[in-house]
Task: inverse folding
C-alpha cells in the first residue's frame, strides 16, 4: 500500500495559521448536525471534553468507556498540574515561549504548527475549567496560583492540590453528564471497543463488547473519534492505571491506521521503587516535588552499603559525602531538568552501583533543605527571633505539608517510611507514551473519518513530554480543536444517510472479533494472562526501556515473537465469553500489547539516534548526553502493521521554519 | 504471612451468594489488592473461578476499588481506599472477611463488584455548571476567596467510591450528593444554579432507592477522602431554601 502522509498544516505565518484556518474552515449547519452521528471512544480528558463539546454543538454523540463510569478514566490520576501561557505571574511567559519550550522539550521531533496551536488554546482551557467550577489553587488575593515544572524557567502550571487530573476530569465529566441528561450524548459504560469498522475507506463504526454480558454489539456513525489513552502498560509495570491499554488504537492499526513513533516512551524519574515480584503497578511521586526536593546518592560505596544494610540512616550522612548529581551535572536547571534527563541520570548513578535500596535501584529525593529554608522564612514572617532547630523544622514541615501533604501521605502509606524525617527513595518508571496514532493537523488519522485525540495520538510532544502538558493537550484536543476540525470531514458527509449496522463490513468485523475471543478462551493452556503480561513487560523494560541498543533490540524482537506464539498456544483464560469476565478482558488487551511491543522495537531499532525518551547507547556524546542526528532522523516514523513480515515504515519529514534545531542543553 | 480469607462469592445478581474460605500466602509489602491478585492467580491455575473485584488506578483516586473488609468499607485504616491498604496492617494467621458494598442502590454484578451507575445519574440530574465550551471569561475575572476555594476543593475531593453508602445503616447517598452540591455551591460560578441543582440531585437520589440520612455520621468515619458531614448540613440548608422557593 502506498500511503502519502499529508500533514495538512495550513499555509501562513506560524502564529496566524490556526486563526486563519479556523475562520475559513467548512462548517456543518445546525440542522445537519442533528442528523450526523459521531462515536467517541474514551471518557478521559480528551474523550469527555470532546463528547461534551460535540454534544453542545448539536451532533448526535455516542460515547464509550470500558470503565464503570466516565469519571474513572485514567486522567483522574494526574497529580501535578496543567500548563497555560497566561503569564499571570508576569515572569515573561507567552504563547511563543510555551510553544518553544514544548518543541525544545520534545527534542525537536514534533510538528511546529500543532504545538503552536496547543500553546495558543492553552489559555482558553484555564478559562473554561474555571467556569466549570474546577477548584484550582488560589492566592490569598483570590487569584489563580501557579507553580513551576521541569524543563522550563517560568511558573505557568495551574493545579488543584495534588489532584489536578481529578478535578479537570470531573469538570469534563460534569459537562458530559449535562449532555447525557439533555440526550445529546448517549453514554455506554462498561462497553469496550473490539474493532473498527471501515466502509469504502471511511471509519463508520465499531464493534464493542458489553463487559457486563459479554455480548458483542455493533454501533454505526458518520465518523469515529478515538480518545483511548496511552499504552505504557505494554511494560506491565508503569504508573498507568491497571486497565489502560492499547487495543482501541491497535484495532485501528489493524484496519490500516498508522502508528507514529511508537518507541517514544517517557520514563518518569520520580516513582516509588519496585518492592517485590508481586508488584502490580508503580506509583508516581509528582514532578512538582523536584521544585523542593534534592536528588542525591552517597559519594562513597561504603556509605551506599551501610545505607542498604540499615546500619546508616541516610539523613545522618553528612552533606559533603553526598553527590547531588543533578545539581553537579546540570547547574542551570539542577533538580528541574526534564524527565528524560533526570531518569537517565538516576540510571547512571545506579549502574555505577550507587543505588540506595536492597535491589540497588533507587536514589534519594531529600526535603531536609527545603524544610529548613521554609522554616526559617516562616519564623521570620511570624516575627520569631532566633528560632531553635525544632521550631524551624516544625514550621518548615508545615509549609511542605501544605504543598505536598497528600503526596507525602501516599508515600508513607505505600512504604511505611516518613518522608518528613528521612529522604524518599525514588526510581524511574514508565509513565507516558509520546507515540501514538499518526494524525494530521485536523487530528485525523490516515483512515478517513477516524480521528485520534489525547494520549492515543502522537501529535504534540515529540520525543519527550514536558510535565503538565498532557492534561493541556487532552483538553485542547477535546474542547478546542476537534469541535472545529471534525467539520473538515463531516461537511462532506451532510448528504450521507445514517449508516446501517447491517452492512457486511459490520458482520465480518463482528465475526472476526468473536473468532478471536473464542480462540483465546479455547486455548486452555497453563499460564495465566498475568504471567504473560509480566514476561512481556520484562522484555520491553530490559531491551526497549531507558536505554536501547541494536543488539538488544534485535534480541527483543525474537523474544517477543516467541512469546506471542507461546501466548496463542498456552494462555489460560477462565470462564466464558458471554458473561462478565475480567480475565478475558485482559487477555484481549495483552494480545494486542504483544504485537505493539514488536512494532516499538522495530521503531527503536530504526531510529539510529538518541532523542528525548529514546536513548540509543550507540549515539551519545562523550559525557553521556543524547546525540541527535538531525540530518537523517528529523522525521516522524509512521508504521503500517503487516501480519506476515516486519512493519512498513512511512516517513513524514519534520520541517522547522521558526525554530532553530539546537542541541538541547540544560547545563 | 498466611491468611484465611472469607470472601463473598456471587455468580450474578439473580443467583444468591455465600461466603467461601481460601488460604493465601502474602507478605507485608503487598497491597491488599496485590494479595487478592496472588489468590486469583492460584485460583485460575487450579481451574477455579477467580474472585471478581473492581480496581484501576491503585493509588486511591479513581474510586473504582472498594470492598468491605472485616465489616468496614475500605478496611480499618482511616482515610484510605482498599487499594492503598497494605498488608503490614495484618498479622500472620489472621482471618479476613471480604464482602461487597451492600445497598439497594448498588446491585451486585459479581462477587465483590457492584453497579454504582446510580451515582452517575445523580450527577446527571444537576451536578454541573451549565456552561458550554467557549462561553468562559478570563480565569482571573472573578476572584474567589482562598478559603472558599479550599473548602470547595475539600468537597470536590470525593472519588465517588460509594463507601459512605455502604457504611450507612440506611444506605443513604447523602455524603456523596452533598459533596458535589458543596463543591459547586461554594464557588461563585456554581452558586447561580444552587437551588435547582440541589432539588434535582436529591430527587434523583431518592429515585435510585438510597435511604434517608439520620445523622449517624458513619459515612464520614469510613470515607477514604474524609469528606466532612458539614457538607450534608450545607445541602440541607440549600434544600430548605429551594423548597421555600418552589412553594
Ligand atoms: C500517575 C500519573 C500522573 C500524571 N500527572 C500528570 C500531570 O500532572 N500533568 C499532565 O499534564 N499529565 C499528567 N499525566 C498524564 C495524563 O494524565 C494523561 O496523559 C492523560 O490524562 C491522558 O488522557 P486521555 O484522555 O488521552 O486518556 P485516558 O484518561 O487514559 O482515558 C482513556 C479512556 O478511553 C477509554 N478506553 C480505552 N480503550 C477503550 C476501548 N477499547 N473501548 C472503550 N473505551 C476505551 C477508557 O475507558 C478511558 O475512558 C499523568 C499520568 C499518570 C499516569
Ligand atoms: S463521599 Fe467519601 S465515601 Fe462517599 S463516594 Fe465520596 S469519597 Fe467515597
Ligand atoms: S483502584 Fe483507584 S481508588 Fe482504588
Result:
Amino acid at each position: 500500500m502506498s500511503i502519502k502522509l499529508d500533514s495538512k498544516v495550513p499555509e501562513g505565518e506560524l502564529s496566524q495559521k490556526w486563526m486563519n484556518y479556523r475562520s475559513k474552515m467548512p462548517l456543518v449547519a445546525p440542522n445537519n448536525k442533528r442528523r450526523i452521528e459521531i462515536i467517541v471512544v474514551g471518557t478521559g480528558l480528551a474523550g469527555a471534553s470532546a463528547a461534551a463539546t460535540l454534544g453542545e454543538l448539536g451532533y448526535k454523540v455516542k460515547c464509550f468507556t470500558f470503565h464503570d463510569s466516565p469519571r474513572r478514566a485514567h486522567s483522574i490520576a494526574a497529580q501535578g498540574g496543567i500548563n497555560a501561557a497566561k503569564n499571570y505571574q508576569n515572569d515573561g511567559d507567552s504563547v511563543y515561549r510555551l510553544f518553544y519550550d514544548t518543541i525544545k522539550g520534545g527534542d525537536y521531533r514534533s510538528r511546529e504548527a500543532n504545538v503552536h496551536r496547543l500553546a495558543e488554546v492553552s489559555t482558553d482551557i484555564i478559562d473554561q475549567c474555571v467556569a466549570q467550577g474546577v477548584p484550582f489553587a488560589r492566592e490569598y488575593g483570590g487569584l489563580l496560583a501557579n507553580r513551576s515544572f521541569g524543563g522550563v524557567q517560568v511558573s505557568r502550571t495551574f493545579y488543584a492540590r495534588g489532584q489536578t487530573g481529578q478535578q479537570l476530569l470531573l469538570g469534563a465529566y460534569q459537562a458530559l453528564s449535562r449532555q447525557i441528561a439533555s440526550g445529546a450524548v448517549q453514554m455506554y459504560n462498561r462497553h469496550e471497543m473490539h474493532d473498527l469498522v471501515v466502509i469504502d475507506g471511511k471509519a463508520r463504526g465499531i464493534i464493542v463488547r458489553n463487559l457486563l454480558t459479554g455480548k458483542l454489539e455493533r454501533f454505526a456513525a458518520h465518523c469515529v473519534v478515538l480518545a483511548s489513552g496511552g499504552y505504557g502498560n505494554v511494560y506491565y509495570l508503569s504508573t498507568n492505571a491497571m486497565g489502560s491499554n492499547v487495543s482501541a488504537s491497535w484495532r485501528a492499526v489493524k484496519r490500516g491506521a498508522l502508528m507514529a513513533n511508537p518507541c517514544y516512551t517517557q520514563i518518569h524519574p520520580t516513582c516509588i521503587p519496585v518492592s517485590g515480584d508481586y508488584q502490580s503497578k508503580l506509583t508516581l511521586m509528582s514532578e512538582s516535588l523536584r521544585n523542593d526536593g534534592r536528588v542525591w546518592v552517597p559519594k562513597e560505596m561504603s556509605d551506599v552499603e551501610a545505607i542498604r544494610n540499615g546500619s546508616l540512616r541516610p539523613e545522618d550522612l553528612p552533606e559533603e559525602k553526598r553527590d547531588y548529581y543533578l545539581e553537579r551535572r546540570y547547574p542551570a536547571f539542577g533538580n528541574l531538568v526534564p524527565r528524560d534527563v533526570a531518569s537517565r541520570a538516576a540510571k547512571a548513578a545506579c549502574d555505577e552501583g550507587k543505588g540506595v535500596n536492597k535491589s540497588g535501584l533507587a536514589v534519594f529525593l531529600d526535603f531536609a533543605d527545603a524544610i529548613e529554608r521554609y522554616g526559617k522564612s516562616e519564623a521570620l514572617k511570624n516575627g520569631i527571633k532566633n528560632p531553635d532547630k525544632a521550631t524551624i523544622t516544625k514550621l518548615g514541615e508545615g509549609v511542605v505539608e501544605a504543598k505536598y501533604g497528600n503526596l507525602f501521605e501516599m508515600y508513607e502509606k505505600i512504604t511505611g517510611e516518613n518522608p518528613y524525617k528521612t529522604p524518599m527513595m525514588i526510581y524511574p518508571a514508565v509513565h507516558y507514551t509520546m507515540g501514538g496514532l499518526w494524525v494530521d493537523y485536523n487530528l485525523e488519522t490516515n483512515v478517513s473519518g477516524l480521528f485520534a485525540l489525547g494520549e492515543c495520538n502522537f501529535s504534540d510532544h515529540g520525543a519527550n513530554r514536558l510535565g503538565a502538558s498532557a492534561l493541556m493537550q487532552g483538553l485542547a484536543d477535546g474542547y478546542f480543536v476537534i469541535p472545529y476540525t471534525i467539520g473538515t470531514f463531516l461537511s462532506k458527509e451532510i448528504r450521507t444517510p445514517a449508516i446501517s449496522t447491517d452492512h457486511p463490513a459490520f458482520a465480518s468485523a463482528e465475526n472476526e472479533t468473536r473468532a478471536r475471543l473464542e480462540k483465546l478462551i479455547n486455548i486452555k493452556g497453563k499460564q495465566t494472562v498475568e504471567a504473560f503480561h509480566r514476561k512481556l513487560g520484562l522484555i520491553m523494560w530490559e531491551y526497549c526501556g531507558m536505554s536501547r541498543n541494536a543488539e538488544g533490540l534485535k534480541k527483543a524482537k525474537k523474544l517477543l515473537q516467541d512469546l506471542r506464539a507461546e501466548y496463542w498456544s498456552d494462555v489460560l483464560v477462565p470462564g466464558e465469553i458471554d458473561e462478565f469476565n475480567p480475565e478475558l478482558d485482559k487477555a484481549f488487551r495483552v494480545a494486542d500489547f504483544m504485537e505493539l511491543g514488536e512494532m516499538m522495537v522495530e521503531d527503536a531499532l530504526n531510529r539510529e539516534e538518541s532523542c528525548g525518551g529514546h536513548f540509543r547507547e550507540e549515539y551519545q556524546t562523550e559525557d553521556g548526553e543524547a546525540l541527535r542526528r538531525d540530518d537523517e532522523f528529523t522525521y516522524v516514523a509512521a508504521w503500517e502493521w503487516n501480519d506476515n513480515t516486519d512493519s512498513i515504515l512511512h516517513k513524514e519529514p519534520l520541517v522547522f521554519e521558526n525554530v532553530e534545531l539546537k542541541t538541547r542543553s540544560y547545563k | 504471612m498466611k491468611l484465611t480469607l472469607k470472601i463473598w462469592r456471587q455468580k450474578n445478581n439473580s443467583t444468591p451468594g455465600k461466603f467461601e474460605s481460601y488460604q493465601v500466602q502474602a507478605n507485608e509489602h503487598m497491597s491488599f489488592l496485590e494479595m487478592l491478585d496472588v489468590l486469583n492467580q492460584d485460583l485460575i491455575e487450579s481451574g477455579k473461578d477467580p474472585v471478581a473485584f473492581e480496581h484501576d488506578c491503585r493509588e486511591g483516586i479513581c474510586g473504582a476499588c472498594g470492598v468491605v473488609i472485616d465489616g468496614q468499607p475500605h478496611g480499618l485504616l482511616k482515610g484510605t481506599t482498599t487499594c492503598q491498604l497494605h498488608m503490614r496492617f495484618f498479622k500472620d494467621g489472621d482471618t479476613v472477611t471480604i464482602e461487597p458494598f451492600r445497598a439497594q442502590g448498588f446491585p451486585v454484578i459479581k462477587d465483590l463488584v457492584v453497579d454504582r451507575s446510580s451515582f452517575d445519574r445523580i450527577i446527571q440530574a444537576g451536578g454541573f455548571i451549565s456552561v458550554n465550551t467557549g462561553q468562559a471569561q478570563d480565569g482571573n475575572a472573578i476572584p474567589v476567596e482562598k478559603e472558599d476555594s479550599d473548602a470547595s476543593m475539600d468537597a470536590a475531593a470525593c472519588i465517588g467510591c460509594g463507601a459512605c453508602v455502604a457504611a450507612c445503616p440506611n444506605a443513604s447517598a447523602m455524603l456523596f450528593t452533598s459533596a458535589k452540591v458543596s463543591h459547586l455551591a461554594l464557588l461563585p460560578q456554581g452558586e447561580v444554579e444552587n437551588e435547582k441543582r440541589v432539588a434535582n440531585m436529591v430527587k434523583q437520589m431518592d429515585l435510585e432507592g438510597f435511604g434517608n440520612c439520620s445523622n449517624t455520621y458513619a459515612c464520614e468515619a469510613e470515607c477514604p477522602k474524609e469528606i466532612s458531614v458539614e457538607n450534608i448540613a450545607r445541602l440541607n440548608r440549600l434544600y430548605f431554601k429551594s423548597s421555600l422557593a418552589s412553594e
In short: Chain A has a mean pLDDT of 96.
